[in-house]
């Protein structure tokens, strides 16, 4: 198969096209150009996208990793040549399954290619399954080692041991193993099933015998319980008959009580004749009680009346004066008191001082420099001195007068503090106001009490009858009526519930009480019900188990079946052992055939440094360099040498298993030095003569070397 071009809407690729040539294609591009995306696109176009893969911590599922960045649906197209026919395959989404729908047709004519389907496209085109292709012809730097895979091992084994990959020997061995597994596989298969059937039949027979014995015991217990229940029911009937006789006696007692209650009621009714009705008696009694209560209240109020208050005694300054005028009189006396105090303080001393100063100044001026001025000033000073002396004499007379008047006010009020005069006046006025209010309240209370007394005296007086006795008589009649009604209702209830029960048909020998009998009977019936349920279950299980004779015949047939299957199992074991011995003999050629080709390729890649290579049955590889006596695993080699070792093995496996498939390398030469990279490209160029080789690389030396 040879690829012409690929067009992808896949991951970062958006309707981009990659054109390829026959033979060797070396595509050198920087990181993040899309090399790995093109490789994953090729595998997806051939084998589809694994939608069952789930994203895990540290890794994305392909359906999420390669979802188109543009938001368009995932799709793609490959133009290729297969068996001389130019074919185009296209993939697109199928519902919610990305790349789930495939179309394959001839490029020129559009004729459909029916053998290429979405499930088998890669296997038909390349001749191998997906796992074989990705472990042989599809080489990435991340998974260079050749690891075990069931399909890969099967094809390698068949190819090396039989010369082709038809796998007839494996098919025969698989069929023998399938037959043996069908007979016995761990705890499943025909033989374990037959043995289980045999054991189950034996258990059924044992269970059937146990159920037969159990049903016999249950029937015996049932008979005993039924007899016990009969005895208890007969005893219960006898107890009911005795109870009915007791009920008849209580009916007779109730009839006597009802008769006595009726007689007492008639007597109470006769005693009420001629008495006022109970309602009227109650009202009259309430009126009497209310009048008595009101008289008692009036008497209590009369006893609690306060005495008539006495007027307060007037203080000496306010005698023969209206108490309301006392504060006004105090205010006038206070004003006069302070006015006298102010008039006794003239400014005469100012005139005296001014006269003395001016006289002294005039004498000084007259004697010294200004006699005329000094005389004038002296005259003014003498005049002021005269005025001061006259004013002083007048002020002394006024002060003596004011002093005598103030002393008179102080004697009148008993204090020379006007504030005390005011307090005395206000106290006198307030005490007089309190007296007036108390006198008014006392007189009004006496008037109100007198009015209440007059109202009570005007109320009509009821007849002096014993209303309490009348009320008691009516209450006695009501009580007798209730007793009569209760006794009548009790009698009617007893007559309604009492039934005559006949005596027991069988002599009663039990001594339990009615409560004990009811409890024992309920327990016996419950036990009988449970017993019947167990007996029914037992009979049902016996019916489900089937007939004993039929089970015995089935057990014999099961034994014969087990013997037959054991003989078949032994025969299949002999056949598998013989086939395994034959395959073991052929498998000794498995490793040398692949290993020989890988050894030659590895020697070329390393310039002849490594001359020996051995591959085990589990695809483990050991090698040795020239001069080394011991084969060593890849753990002893450098990382670049390990990549070259696995590349040689991959190329050898691809030659054997995928001769028609393109060889794809994704940065597989990244750890090769220039010389070994040059040798690898030479080998790939040689491989390109037989198949198309596509090399993706970020190394510039690969492109230059190829040129």
Architecture blueprint of SSEs:
Elements (H helix, E strand, L loop, with lengths): L1 E9 L2 E7 L4 E5 L6 H13 L14 H4 L9 E8 L2 E10 L2 E10 L14 H6 L3 H5 L3 E3 L9 H13 L5 H16 L6 H82 L6 H26 L22 H18 L4 H20 L3 H43 L4 H41 L8 H31 L16 H32 L2 H40 L2 H16 L4 E6 L5 E5 L6 E2 L5 H19 L5 E4 L7 H14 L5 E5 L2 H7 L1
Parallel strand pairs: 3-12, 7-11, 11-12
Antiparallel strand pairs: 1-2, 1-4, 4-5, 5-6, 8-9, 9-10
Helix pairs in contact: 5-16, 6-15, 7-13, 7-14, 7-15, 8-12, 8-13, 9-11, 9-12, 10-11, 16-17, 18-19
What would the average pLDDT be, to the nearest integer?
79
Main sheet properties: 5 strands, antiparallel
Strand order of the largest sheet: 2-1-4-5-6
So what's the overall shape? flat
The structure class reads alpha/beta
State the distance separating the first and last CA atoms. Answer: 25 Å
DSSP strand tally: 12
Q: What count of domains describes the coordinates?
A: 3
**Approximately what portion of the residues adopt beta-strand conformation?**
5-15%
Helix fraction bin: 55-70%
Measured on Cα atoms, how large is the radius of gyration?
70 Å
Count the helices. How many?
Answer: 19
Q: Unreliable stretches, pLDDT < 50, 5 or more residues? A: 159-167
């Amino acid at each position: 198969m040879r690829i012409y071009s690929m067009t992808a809407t896949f991951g970062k690729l958006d309707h981009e096209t990659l054109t390829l040539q026959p033979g060797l294609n070396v595509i050198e591009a920087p990181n993040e150009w899309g090399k790995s995306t093109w490789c994953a696109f090729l595998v997806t176009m051939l084998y589809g996208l694994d939608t069952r893969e789930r994203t895990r911590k540290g890794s994305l599922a392909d359906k999420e990793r390669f979802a188109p960045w543009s938001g368009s649906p995932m799709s793609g197209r490959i133009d290729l040549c297969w068996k001389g026919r130019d074919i185009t395959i296209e993939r697109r989404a199928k519902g919610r399954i990305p790349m789930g729908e495939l179309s394959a047709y001839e490029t020129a004519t559009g004729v459909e290619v029916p053998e290429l389907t979405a499930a088998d496209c890669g296997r038909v085109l390349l001749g191998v399954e997906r796992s074989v292709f990705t472990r042989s012809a599809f080489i990435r730097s991340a998974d260079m080692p050749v690891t075990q895979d069931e399909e890969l091992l099967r094809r390698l084994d068949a190819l090396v041991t039989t010369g082709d990959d038809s796998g007839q020997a494996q098919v025969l061995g698989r069929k023998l193993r399938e037959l043996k597994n069908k007979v016995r596989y761990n705890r499943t298969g025909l033989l374990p099933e037959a043995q289980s059937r045999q054991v189950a039949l034996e258990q059924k027979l044992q269970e059937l015998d146990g159920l037969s014995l159990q049903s016999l015991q249950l029937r015996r217990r049932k008979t005993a319980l039924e007899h016990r229940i009969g005895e208890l029911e007969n005893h219960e009937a006898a107890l009911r008959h005795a109870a009915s006789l007791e009920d008849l006696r209580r009916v007779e007692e109730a009839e006597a009580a009802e008769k006595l209650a009726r007689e007492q009621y008639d007597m109470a009714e006769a005693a009420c004749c001629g008495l006022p009705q109970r309602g009227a008696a109650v009202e009259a009694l309430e009126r009497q009680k209310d009048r008595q209560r009101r008289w008692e209240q009036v008497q209590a109020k009369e006893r609690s009346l306060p005495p008539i208050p006495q007027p307060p005694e007037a203080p000496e300054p306010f005698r023969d004066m209206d108490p309301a005028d006392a504060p006004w009189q105090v205010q006038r006396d206070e004003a006069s008191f302070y006015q006298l105090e102010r008039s006794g303080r003239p400014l005469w001393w100012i005139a005296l001082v001014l006269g003395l100063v001016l006289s002294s100044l005039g004498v000084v001026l007259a004697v010294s420099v200004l006699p005329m001025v000094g005389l004038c000033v002296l005259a003014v000073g003498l005049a002021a001195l005269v005025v001061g002396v006259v004013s002083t004499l007048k002020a002394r007379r006024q002060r003596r007068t004011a002093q005598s008047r103030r002393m008179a006010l102080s004697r009148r009020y008993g204090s020379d503090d006007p504030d005390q005069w005011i307090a005395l006046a206000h106290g006198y006025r307030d005490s007089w106001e309190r007296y007036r209010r108390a006198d008014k309240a006392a007189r009004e209370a006496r008037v109100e009490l007198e009015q209440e007394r007059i109202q009570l005296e005007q109320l009509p007086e009821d007849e002096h009858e014993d209303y309490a006795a009348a009320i008691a008589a009516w209450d006695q009649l009501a009580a007798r009526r209730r007793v009569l009604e209760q006794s009548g209702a009790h009698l009617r209830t007893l007559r309604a519930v009492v039934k005559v029960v006949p005596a027991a048909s069988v002599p009663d020998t039990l001594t339990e009480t009615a409560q004990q009998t009811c409890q024992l009977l309920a327990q016996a019936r419950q036990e009988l019900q449970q017993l019947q349920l167990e007996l029914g279950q037992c009979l049902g299980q016996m019916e489900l188990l089937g007939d004993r004779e039929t089970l015995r015949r089935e057990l014999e047939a099961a034994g014969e079946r087990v013997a037959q299957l054991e003989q078949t199992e032994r025969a299949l074991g002999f056949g598998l052992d013989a086939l395994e011995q034959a395959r073991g003999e052929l498998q000794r050629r498995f490793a040398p055939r692949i290993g020989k080709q890988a050894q030659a390729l590895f020697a070329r890649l390393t310039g002849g440094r490594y001359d020996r290579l051995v591959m085990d049955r589990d695809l483990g590889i050991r090698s040795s360099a020239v001069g080394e006596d011991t084969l060593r695993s890849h753990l002893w080699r450098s990382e670049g040498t390990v990549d070259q070792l696995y590349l040689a093995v991959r190329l050898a496996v691809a030659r054997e298993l995928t001769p028609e498939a393109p060889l794809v390398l994704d940065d597989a030469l990244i750890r090769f030095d220039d010389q070994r990279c040059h040798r690898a490209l030479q080998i790939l160029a040689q491989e390109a003569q037989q198949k198309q080789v596509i090399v993706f690389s970020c190394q510039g030396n690969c492109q230059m070397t190829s040129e």
